[in-house]
Design goal:
By secondary structure, the protein is α+β, with helices and mostly antiparallel strands. The N and C termini lie far apart (75 Å).
Length: 157
């Protein structure tokens, strides 16, 4: 009887600990991948799957043989009324998060069905006047993007 009670208590403790760990990961959200590196394809894909148009994300290439390190993201057809605007929004928003979360990425290319966009860390940080790697949470990144959203339409002109 004592073994049964002890076993039950141990299992309850393990369940409690695992539940707490899962909750912590969910609370961190996308920032659980902060300080990732280009060579970590699991981290990169986990980030991309939490960003706009993740449902259209098809594949990625990680250029890690020589600097500057680059992430190339391929997307299937995106359904939108204004495709060019949606492509640009996706590139701008997703690149901001990738440069914030991935330490050594210097260039991100978004390859859509009929267009591609390449953004560099240097250009985006200069435009924002902010070192993206210094942002500490998802809310800060979203506020930065929103504060420049109207101007972002001119980014690709």
């Amino acid at each position: 009887m004592k073994k049964l009670i002890l076993t039950t208590a141990v299992l309850l403790c393990i369940t409690f600990i695992l539940s707490a760990c899962q909750s912590l990961g969910k609370e961190q959200g996308i920032f659980q991948w902060n300080d990732s590196f280009v060579g970590d394809n699991n981290a990169i894909s986990s980030i991309v799957f939490q960003l706009p148009n993740a449902d259209s994300f098809e594949s990625m290439e990680l250029q890690t043989k020589e600097e500057p390190y680059e992430i190339i993201l391929h997307y299937q057809e995106i359904m939108a009324d204004n495709l060019e605007q949606e492509y640009q929004y996706t590139a701008f928003y997703n690149a901001t998060f990738l440069f914030t979360l991935v330490q050594n990425v210097e260039k991100v290319t978004f390859a859509f069905k009929d267009e591609s966009y390449t953004l560099t860390r240097t250009e985006l940080e200069k435009w924002y006047d902010t070192k993206l790697g210094d942002l500490n949470n998802e809310k800060e990144v979203k506020q930065l993007i929103e504060s420049h959203q109207e101007e972002s339409a001119t980014w690709f002109e």
